[in-house]
Write a structure and sequence with these properties.
Length: 295
């Protein structure tokens, strides 16, 4: 069972003092390292004996781990708190099947009580090192803060990037909300270009993608900074540009270099996979607004 599935499974079983202990552990872990019972009691505003019972229960469920005399959150604990946020906001009623699994994130289907389907993206940056740590049942404080910060920041950055892109094109995913290391998005039905699906008009699709990059740059002031066939979805006709946690502002010192990298990555893929010829310099001029149209 994955950490996400475990988080969903235990969601309704946790008592108020266990939620309060989790929240206290999150605050303490992000700022004070590995809290002992005394500090965790103060952060949770609960008596030490109640915190002791709560941490025992959280450890048994896999939501927290012991380190010496202290405690750290597990990935399951973080994801349980995020799921609780969405439930409280009436954004998620049930968690569905996994949609995609990547090196740095997993995506699950999420449903509202009315049956609306969303995509819940959960960042798993540091997945390999965290798994080995979990086997040893120990995690250094600095290592945890680094993992926690990386995942929380990635979710926050993607949320704010997609908010800037909202309304500019249906090809930019609509973001619903975010919490901790997760982002809630509209669910899309395409497959990644990396799977080389059959495309009705590859030349037209490449032009569409370059146009979307131009829109993001000119109207939202954003460069994806990691665009490739792995984060472009299509259903054969429609196209979507996904994954924006690494996006940078157009004013960033390296924005031009990163944008050129994106243009070349996409152009190279379309030439290799679909035989579409394009000039990277001309395409770059179009994306940046120097050229009024694609040659």
């Amino acid at each position: 069972m994955s950490t996400t599935e475990n988080a969903a499974r235990v969601l309704k079983t946790l008592k108020d003092e266990e939620w309060r202990t989790l929240a206290g552990l999150e605050r303490a872990s992000s700022g004070y390292g590995t809290p002992d019972l005394g500090r965790l009691s103060r952060m949770s505003r609960l008596p030490p004996e109640r915190v002791r019972f709560a941490t025992d229960a959280l450890e048994k469920r896999g939501l927290a781990m012991r380190k010496g005399q202290g405690f750290v959150l597990s990935r399951t604990g973080v994801e349980a708190m995020a799921l609780k946020d969405y439930v409280k906001k009436d954004l998620i009623f049930a968690l569905g099947a996994i949609i995609a699994k990547g090196k740095e994130s997993d995506v699950y289907e999420a449903l509202t009580e009315e049956g609306t389907k969303y995509a819940l993206k959960l960042y798993k940056i540091g997945r390999i090192s965290f798994t080995s740590v979990r086997k040893k049942r120990v995690l250094e404080s600095a290592q945890f803060r680094s993992w926690m910060t990386a995942n929380y920041d990635a979710a926050k950055r993607e949320y704010h990037a997609l908010r800037k892109l909202d309304g500019l094109s249906k090809s930019f995913p609509k973001v619903i909300s975010y919490s901790r290391s997760t982002v809630l998005l509209e669910q899309l039905s395409g497959v990644r270009l990396s799977q080389r699906p059959e495309i009705e008009d590859p030349d037209s699709m490449l032009r569409t993608i370059l146009g979307l990059m131009r829109t993001a740059f000119a109207k939202a002031g954003l460069v994806n900074a990691d665009l490739s066939e792995y984060n472009i979805l299509t259903d054969g006709a429609m196209v979507w540009l996904i994954d924006w946690p690494q996006a940078v502002d157009a004013s960033h010192p390296n924005a031009t270099e990163l944008l050129m990298h994106d243009v070349k990555a996409v152009s190279t893929f379309f030439k290799r996979a679909y035989g579409v010829e394009s000039d990277s310099d001309s395409s770059f001029g179009y994306v940046t607004g120097r050229n009024a149209s694609l040659e």
